[in-house]
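Fold it.
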Amino acid sequence: MTRCLRENGVSETKIVQVPFGADVDLFTPAEGMASSRFTLLYVASINFRKGTRYLLEAWRQLALPDAELVLAGAPDAAGEQLLRQYAGVYRHLGHVPWFELPELFRSATAFVLPSLAILIALSWIYLRFGDVPEVAGILYGIKPAVTAIVVAA
């Protein structure tokens, strides 16, 4: 990013580099494929703002064979309702301590965060230091429209 700013004429005195928000010694890529099973990982609070209901409904409709949706995060009241409504569609781990997150990310095939609100979550920072593809949702205009973007990390 710094190089890009310099190349586009931004003065060195106006550039402040912020250190990484994740421990790059802990959040490292996995060595080889852990499993042949497709595992989609969601790490965030389970609620409407994070787009969890869109994810659960899409996963239910996909009904992929030999695939698993893993949810890591604490639900709010609406999230509890979603978990009951979609029981059997996912595996819920509940809150995962930060020191267990690196291995959790390494165990996944892909990461998803279909947020309708802010996408700058700590989980994105952790993800950037691994090699797990990510799927992001965006809010387009004033209508909630979830668009999947798959990017090879």
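The CA atoms of residues 44 and 121 lie 8 Å apart.
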